[in-house]
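R.M. (postdoc): so does anyone remember the format we settled on? I'll just put the structure tokens first.
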């Protein structure tokens, strides 16, 4: 079509000659092999686990090769925009230790490929749409929603592929005169690609994750500019990833179906395609069958879930690495103390089909990661969670840092040969501390012995208890009380003649444990009493008696 008609269709005074854009956004000067990746969310909601999973791959691919990881905001859908979504993406990723080098709302000298909001890039899309019109690779389409619905209905009834293609593309061959007339009448129009493809022809395409796949040619005259001049995802993707010099596009496998469109668009625009890796979906086990993680059904899909539950961010990232990289777990076993960022990330080691996300496994990783921290770091982590999500009472408790540190040392077994791994998350870990505070102590006196025995043990121990005793002396006193109350003082004695005793020394200690810590499961009881101090320990021994 003539330049004049193209100018009538694309009214934009800011359009520059095409070479200008190449000059404005030159290829990046990076080391050989350095990858440029991006996260390109639509600011329509809050990012979820699937986005984090993709972002981790993007970030690792860029940063392990000395490349660039940037943030582009795909805000073409104004209606679905959510206030604060961009800040939330940046904050959330930062919480998990992923940082952008450049992009929307990122302060960086590298921001030379912006604007990074698609709404602010109108003229570059318009310039290239205009060029496609002139080269007869695009055309305006005046079909209304009703026209399109009718075509779709006919195609469905006749079991034909749906869409705007071939003989169904009724605006494809409008004369220039007709186009001008309709524009002058004020009829709304979109700009469509004039596809040159044939869906019967298939090509091999190498996806960096899925390997060799077969893709048909595109034959759909897809919309590239909507009636308000805003580009569709397809068109903006081709233009932006070219001019922002993305070298690898990592995106969800739901985009595979549109790959033929993108191949044709890049060719029509004369741009070299970036490499693509389509990630598989995250699955979960649901009653024996695997299904896709769902934003609506599964709370663990929301990233807020991990903050509220109080997962250590590095635990979530390490677990995601095991899901993303088939050889990460083995590497981690050999290098437990090395940061996961030292692992050699490879796009080829990403799963080709559904990756199973398993909260139990995450919990195991989480326990291990917390057990690697110093008590001071555990305090800081828990205290941070308490500040944001804890109760007023929790916050009061955490003001006494030294007291909490003593509890943490006990709960983690710091200094002992084997670290305990009782803390999985902050929300669960903080509750393990409750019995050290009288205002949170909720004992369950679930003794397995009768009132006479329980009270005799508690009274007997209260009489001999001395907070100055070391662990050995403390335990020998438990043995004395046990013997006096009809328990075997030694395991071996109990084993030899179980019928002679009402129980073993550990059964006797359990009575003390229930009275002091409120449950039969707790770390070392002597230390617990030590932390509680003489008065509170004696009070609990007395309060624990059965009436
Ligand atoms: N805005 C698209 C989305 O959020 C980005 C897809 C892509 O990474 O290309 O799904």
């Amino acid at each position: 079509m003539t330049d004049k008609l193209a100018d009538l269709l694309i009214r934009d005074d800011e359009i520059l000659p095409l070479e200008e854009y190449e000059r404005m956004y030159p290829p990046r000067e990076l080391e050989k092999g350095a990858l440029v990746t991006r996260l390109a969310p639509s600011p329509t909601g809050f990012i979820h686990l699937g986005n984090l999973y993709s972002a981790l791959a993007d970030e690792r691919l860029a940063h392990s090769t000395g490349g660039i990881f940037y943030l582009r905001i795909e805000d073409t859908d104004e209606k679905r925009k959510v206030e604060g979504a961009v800040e939330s993406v940046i904050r959330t990723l930062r919480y998990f230790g992923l940082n952008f080098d450049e992009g929307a709302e990122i302060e960086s000298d590298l921001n030379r490929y912006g604007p990074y909001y698609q709404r602010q890039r109108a003229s570059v899309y318009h310039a290239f749409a205009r060029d496609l019109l002139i080269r007869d690779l695009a055309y305006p389409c005046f079909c209304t929603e009703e026209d399109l619905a009718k075509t779709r209905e006919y195609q469905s009834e006749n079991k034909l592929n749906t869409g705007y293609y071939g003989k169904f593309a009724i605006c494809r061959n409008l004369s220039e005169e007709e186009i001008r007339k309709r524009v002058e009448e004020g009829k709304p129009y979109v700009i469509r690609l004039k596809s040159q493809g044939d869906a019967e022809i298939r090509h091999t395409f190498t996806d960096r994750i899925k390997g060799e796949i077969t893709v048909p040619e595109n034959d759909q005259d897809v919309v590239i500019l909507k009636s308000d001049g805003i580009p569709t995802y397809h068109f903006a993707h081709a233009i932006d990833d070219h001019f922002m010099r993305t070298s690898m596009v990592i995106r969800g496998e739901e985009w595979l179906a549109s790959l033929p469109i993108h191949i044709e668009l890049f060719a029509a625009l004369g741009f070299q395609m970036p490499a693509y890796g389509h990630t598989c979906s995250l699955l979960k086990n649901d009653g024996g069958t695997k299904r896709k993680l769902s934003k609506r059904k599964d709370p663990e899909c929301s990233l807020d879930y991990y903050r509220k539950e109080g997962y250590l961010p590095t635990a979530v990232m390490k677990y995601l690495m095991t899901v993303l990289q088939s050889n990460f777990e083995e590497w981690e076993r050999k290098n437990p103390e090395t940061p996961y960022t030292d692992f050699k990330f490879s796009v080829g080691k990403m799963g080709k089909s559904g990756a199973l996300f398993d909260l139990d496994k995450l919990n195991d990783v989480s326990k291990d990661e917390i057990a690697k921290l110093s008590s001071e770091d555990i305090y800081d982590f828990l205290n941070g969670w308490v500040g944001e999500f804890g109760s007023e009472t929790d916050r009061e408790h955490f003001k006494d840092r030294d007291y909490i540190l003593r509890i943490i040392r006990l709960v983690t077994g710091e200094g002992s040969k084997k670290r305990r791994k009782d803390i999985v998350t902050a929300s669960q870990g903080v509750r393990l501390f409750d019995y050290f505070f009288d205002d949170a102590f909720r004992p369950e006196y679930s003794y397995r012995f009768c009132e006479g025995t329980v009270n005799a043990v508690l009274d007997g121990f209260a009489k001999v208890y001395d907070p100055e005793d070391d662990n050995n002396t403390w335990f020998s006193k438990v043995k004395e009380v046990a013997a006096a109350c009809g328990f075997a003082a030694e395991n071996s004695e109990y084993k030899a003649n179980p019928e002679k005793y009402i129980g073993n020394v550990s059964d006797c200690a359990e009575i003390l444990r229930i009275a002091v810590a409120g449950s039969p499961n707790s770390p070392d009881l002597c230390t617990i009493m030590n932390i509680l101090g003489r008065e509170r320990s004696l009070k609990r021994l007395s309060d624990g008696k059965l009436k």
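R.M.: ...and that's the designed sequence above, right after the tokens. Also worth knowing: The pocket of glutamic acid is lined by residues 40-42, 74, 237, 249, 251 (CB under 6 Å). The mean pLDDT is 95.
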